[in-house]
Amino acid sequence: MDWYVTILRVLHISAGVYWVGAGLFMGLILYPTAIRLGADGRKYLMAMHKSRIFVLSMPVVSIVTTVAGLLLYAKVTNNFEAEIMKTTKNWVLSVGIVAGFLAFGHGLFAMSMMDNKFGKLAKQIESQPDGATSEQDAQLATMTEKLSLHAKISAGLAVIAVVFMAGHRYVA
Question: Which architecture does CATH list for 3-170?
Answer without folding.
Answer: Up-down Bundle (1.20)
